Amino acid sequence: MAQSRDVAVLVGSLRKGSLNRMTAEGLARLAPDSLALRIVEIGRLPLYDQDLDDEGRPPSEWTDFRERVKEADALLFVTPEYNRSVPGVLKNAIDVGSRPYGQSAWEGKPGGVVSVSPGAMGGFGANHHLRQSMVFLNVPMMQMPEAYVAGAGDSFDEQGELNARTAGFLRKFMTAYAAWVEKILAS
Ligand code: FNR
User: Fold this and answer.
1) Mutate which of 11, 18, 39, 83 to test ligand 1's pocket (most atoms within 8 Å of Cβ)?
2) Measured between alpha carbons, how far is 4 from 12 in angstroms, rounded to an integer?
3) pLDDT value of residue 2
4) For the segment 37-55, what is each residue's pLDDT rounded down to a tens digit?
5) Total domain count for the chain?
6) Which residue's alpha carbon is nearest to atom 21 within ligand 1?
7) Residues with beta carbon inside 6 Å of ligand 1?
8) What CATH number should be reported for the domain holding residue 180?
9) Sheet bearing 35-39, strands edge to edge
10) What is the mean pLDDT of the chain?
């Protein structure tokens, strides 16, 4: 079999019991064999400060993160919504990866987003604010199917596995995402 595509997964929650992290782990299990999903940790990235880049002394956490993202073939964001937008921890990771100017780690990589919320709207606001930033960063984000996982507190069984209904939907999402990745990488 051809080597699988390396997908960097960015999870927008640092919480131990995070529904988003559980979803990301579930997505890794559901993904077609053509994709290898790996969570890239963002919780220890210092807050972005442009002086550190301008003065040539970026923290090693930034440079390691940028290298890891650059290595990846594709990007998958799994994020909660905070106050109708993207959590600051994820926005910080996006900003860190986008600099120094002209050297963005995100450039051109195929992207996708799954937003996950215990609420009824499935993180719609975060999903679309994230798209706004990533489109600006020249990341082609898959448009359809969209993935808003609402009522996520009920999406898992007692072992933390996605229930059949959510897994069925997300399996279809991942099949479409795998095709999107190949299409963008071939273009
Ligand atoms: C939230 N939450 C939330 N939910 C939502 O659907 N829309 C929102 O705008 C917000 N805003 C918000 C702000 C802040 C600061 C917090 C801490 C939480 C609730 C959120 O969806 C819930 O805590 C999720 O469980 C977070 O995802 P994880 O941590 O389970 O992955």
Assistant:
1) 83
2) 24
3) 67
4) 999 999 999 999 999 999 9
5) 1
6) 117
7) 13, 15, 18-20, 80-84, 117-119, 121, 123
8) 3.40.50.360
9) 35-39, 5-11, 74-79, 111-116, 147-149
10) 97
Closest-lying ligand 1 atom to the alpha carbon of residue 21? 31
The mean pLDDT of 152-177, rounded to a whole number, is 96
Q: Which is the closest atom of ligand 1 to the Cα of 17?
A: 30
Average pLDDT over residues 67-88: 98
| Closest ligand 1 atom to 80 CA | 27
- Band of the pLDDT at 3, cuts 50, 70, 90? confident
**CA nearest ligand 1 atom 4, residue:** 81
Residue span of the structural domain in which 25 resides: 5-186
CA-CA distance, 108 to 34, in Å (whole number)?
Answer: 19
Q: What's residue 134's pLDDT? A: 98
Check pLDDT > 60 for residue 1: no
